[in-house]
Structure formats: structure tokens, C-alpha cells
Backbone:
């Protein structure tokens, strides 16, 4: 079972360039999330989507945008990358149909370096 | 502000028991979660506590005291594969997860 697939696994990007991190899930989960993970810090929520067609801002949304055109896909776009966006990005999903249990299923992560 | 505190790093011996503590201050409480994350991999769900007390799941147990804003993860019969980071997270009143920075557990033979 695939679960959540992220692409690319890693990327080096020049500052000022745009980049889209892809995330696809095959579990038919309602909710999807994008987190960034930096050394010494907890996971920080960038954007989330509770259901297809809706998105919301998390703790650190600036410089990022998302869309949720369907249940399966939740791409994250950096319009003009800056070095502070160097991080490991995790996409996650949860099945909120039974209530907010909080069990998240994570993709394998995308390591982004902005130079 | 909201805050989750857990030790940065712990070391334990194979076959022993280790307790990883987590204290929290959040706006509301809708459950506490423990995740395991091996180096270079994704976090995976370990446990969920919403009521006070101990939840046991095989070699792993998780304890919660809501009045003290405190939880611990207890790992018994440690194995080398338990070397990982352990992340504590609390769901606040808005049903958003607040994450601790994680505790890196090093297991020595």
C-alpha cells in the first residue's frame, strides 16, 4: 500500500525560483497537512486542508501556497524561494470522519535546500 | 503562548527501561500523542492519551496527567531498533497539533 507519496525526495533550488512539492494519498483521508521540520524545533504546520476544496493557514504560512482540487492531491508551492525555506517538508493526512483523533500518516519527506 | 517541553537527548542500554517525559502548556487540551521518528524517515504514530492514566501497548506505555500538564512514554526491554526520536504532540482547543522538538534516544549495547 502506497499511503502518502511525496515528490521530489530532495531538491536544491536557487533563491528566487519557484518550486512545487507534490503530495498524493490513496487512503481517501479528508484532512491533509504540510509541515516543515527544522533541527531543534518541533514540526510546524504550514497549511492544511480539512476537505477537498478548502484550505487554511497554519503556524508558518508566509511564502507558501496550497490547493486542494480533489481528495488525493495537496501540492505545496513556494513562489519565490528564500534560504530560510531550507528544511525537510512532510505531507500528512488523517481520517477525520470519526472525529479528531489526531493520528497522522506522514509521507517520507522532501528535503529542500535553497541556495 | 503554547509550549511543549521534552529532553533533547537521552541514552539507555539495550534491554533496559527508559522514560521520556513531556510537559505541556497549551490553549485547551484534546489529547496527547507520541510519535516515533527514525533518522531520515517519517514520524509514525505510537500512542494517544486523552484521559488520565496509563495506556499500555506491548513494550511501550504512555501516561497522562492532565492536571499536571505531564506525560511520559515508557519503553521496556529496549532494542537497538528503538534508537529514534520520540515526538510529543498536544491537540489544542482548535484541534491543532502542537509539537515538541523531540527526544533523540540513543541505545547502547
Residues:
Amino acid at each position: 500500500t502506497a499511503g502518502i507519496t511525496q515528490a521530489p525526495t530532495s531538491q536544491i533550488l536557487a533563491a528566487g525560483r519557484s518550486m512545487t512539492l507534490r503530495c498524493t494519498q490513496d487512503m481517501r483521508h479528508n484532512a491533509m497537512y504540510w509541515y516543515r521540520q527544522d533541527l531543534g524545533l518541533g514540526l510546524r504546520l504550514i497549511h492544511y486542508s480539512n476537505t477537498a476544496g478548502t484550505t487554511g493557514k497554519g503556524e508558518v504560512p508566509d511564502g507558501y501556497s496550497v490547493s486542494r482540487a480533489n481528495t488525493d492531491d495537496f501540492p505545496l508551492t513556494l513562489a519565490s524561494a528564500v534560504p530560510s525555506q531550507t528544511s525537510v517538508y512532510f505531507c500528512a493526512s488523517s481520517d477525520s470522519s470519526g472525529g479528531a483523533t489526531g493520528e497522522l500518516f506522514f509521507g517520507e519527506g522532501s528535503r529542500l535546500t535553497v541556495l | 503562548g503554547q509550549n511543549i517541553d521534552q529532553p533533547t537527548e537521552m541514552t539507555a542500554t539495550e534491554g533496559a527501561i527508559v522514560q521520556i517525559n513531556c510537559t505541556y502548556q497549551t490553549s485547551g487540551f484534546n489529547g496527547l500523542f507520541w510519535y516515533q521518528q527514525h533518522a531520515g524517515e517519517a514520524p509514525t504514530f505510537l500512542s494517544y492519551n486523552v484521559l488520565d492514566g496509563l495506556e499500555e501497548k506491548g513494550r511501550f506505555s504512555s501516561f497522562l496527567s492532565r492536571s499536571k500538564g505531564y506525560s511520559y512514554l515508557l519503553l521496556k526491554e529496549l532494542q537497538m531498533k528503538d534508537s529514534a526520536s520520540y515526538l510529543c504532540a498536544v491537540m489544542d482547543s482548535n484541534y491543532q497539533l502542537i509539537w515538541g522538538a523531540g527526544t533523540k534516544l540513543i541505545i547502547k549495547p
Summary: Chain B touches chain A at residues 4, 8, 30-31, 33, 35, 41-45, 48, 87, 89, 91, 95-102 (CB under 8 Å). The radius of gyration of chain B is 13 Å. The mean pLDDT of chain B is 95.
